[in-house]
Amino acid sequence: MRFFSKRLLKRGYDNYEKFMNFNSAYRRDGKYDDRSRDGRRVYRTVALVLVCCILTSLMVGGGLYMKLSNDIKELTMLSANQAKADTVIGNRAVNLESALKLASDSGSSVTNIAKKVGPSIVGIRMLTQSPRSWYFDDEMAQSKAEGSGIVITADGYIMTNYHVVQYADPKNSRSKNTTLEVFLADKRQAKAKFIGGDPKNDLAVIKIDMDNLTAAELGDSATLEVGELAVAIGNPLGLEFQGSVTAGVISALNRTVSVDDKTLNLIQTDAAINPGNSGGALVNSRGQVVGINTVKISVSGVEGLGFAIPINDAKPIVDQLMMFGYVKGRPFIGISGREITDAIARQYDLPVGIYILEVTPDSGAAKAGIQKGDILVSIAGKDVRTMKEVDNIKKNYKAGDSVDVTVVRNGSKVKLSLTFSEER
């Protein structure tokens, strides 16, 4: 037992000696030991590698966790959006199914509606010849626009949107180089004449020299109800898809929509309406035209927002366009001008207002003494800064009414009396 203890003590002492010699820069004999320093370097290197590995693992793991979290969020959002889309599509399907059932119960169907109204819907092509240049060939010098129209009389009167035929308006500088072509549902075609247009309400009338045409039956848009069947007939994306029929419901009534600085009161529908449908018919379950398709909201992720001009609003204007070529009684000033903004006014030391570029002969402005180069600053006691403000004031009057206007001429204010003439 004693012998065993001595051996243990000796072995422990020897191990202690080895440990001390390895972890000390100096041996017991006082000499410097390089192996001891190398050992510490090894330990430090190993420790540094281990720390780097741990940090790298944490960073990679954190990145993977963040990516996984983002993927989960994205999947959740996609699922939610899909659910919303499914709900919208489901609601539209339910609404359309209900409308179709009501129409079927009343003896109508989309097929019968299309057969009744289809022959009255035409395609319209507006061709405008631009001045040729040596740089462009003949094909590029000619622009083409296509839309839809509705035959309203058997002798060839057709109503449509003004923007579909605007370059054919004699008031437009391009009218001399513009021609209109009409394509009927029975494949016949004819040249058309511009009869009259109303840019403010986006309505126009053209005419072809043909008889015995099928005129559309006009309905009463005042009797429309939200949820009832609505059928759109026209030429989406042009004549290639002439006579396309889409069905939906009346989504809302009396929608106020601003289009190109015009504010229109419109019918909203989810029946598919696309470029080329403009000027076509929105039809009720009895096959009567209750609206003129005019605009669609085209925003990514938005569907089923089409709008039509109510036929009750359009018909009085269309009647006047057929009779006179313009809307009678509408006040007309007779000026064209450029708006002087605050910045321009400061730069050129001018008053804010409308710089008169042109005065129409025999107009109210001409008879009042307004001259080219004048700056219009007020009408009926109200300051004007833009042409839109001028139009808003003008709406409160009719042809024959008189108002005071103020212009700045050569730096001095001049008050004049203006009598509105009739817009033609």
Task: Walk me through what this model shows.
The chain crosses the membrane at residues 45-66. Helices cover 33% and strands 31% of the residues. The protein is α+β, with helices and mostly antiparallel strands and 424 residues long. Strands 1-2-3-6-5-4 form a 6-stranded antiparallel β-barrel. A 6-stranded antiparallel beta barrel has the order 7-8-9-12-11-10. Mean pLDDT is 81; it is low at 1-10, 15-35 and 85-89.
In short:
This protein is an alpha+beta fold.
Feature tags:
alpha+beta; 6-stranded antiparallel barrel; 33% helix; Pdz3 Domain; 424 residues; 20 strands; flat; Thrombin, subunit H; 8 helices; disordered N terminus
Helix and strand layout, with pairings?
Blueprint: H1 2-22, H2 34-105, H3 110-117, E1 121-129, E2 142-151, E3 157-160, H4 162-165, E4 178-183, E5 189-198, E6 203-208, E7 229-234, E8 244-259, E9 262-269, E10 281-283, E11 289-296, E12 306-310, H5 311-324, E13 331-332, E14 335-340, H6 342-348, E15 353-359, H7 364-368, E16 375-379, E17 382-383, H8 387-394, E18 402-409, E19 412-419, E20 421-422
Antiparallel strand pairs: 1-2, 1-4, 2-3, 3-6, 4-5, 5-6, 7-8, 7-10, 8-9, 9-12, 10-11, 11-12, 13-20, 14-15, 15-16, 16-17, 16-18, 18-19
